[in-house]
Structure formats: structure tokens, C-alpha cells
Amino acid sequence: MSQSKRREEAAWKSRKQARHPHGKVKSLAEFASEYDAERSK
Length: 41
Fold this sequence. Notes:
Layout: H1 3-18, H2 28-39
């Protein structure tokens, strides 16, 4: 594999991982159920 091809793949991987830097965004329903569980404690 050539050096430029390797660099290209590394750049693609970093772009792919940078899309969701804080993990998956929760749905409103998931957030609401967690909020209710916290409030009922």
C-alpha cells in the first residue's frame, strides 16, 4: 500500500469518528424516561 493511500485512509477514519464526538444523541423518549427515573429517587 502506498504512503498516500495509507494517509488517505487514516484521514477518512478520523473524519468518520469525529462525526459523533460525544456518542449517540438520545431520543426525547429515552431522555424523558431517564429524567423520570432520576426524579422518582
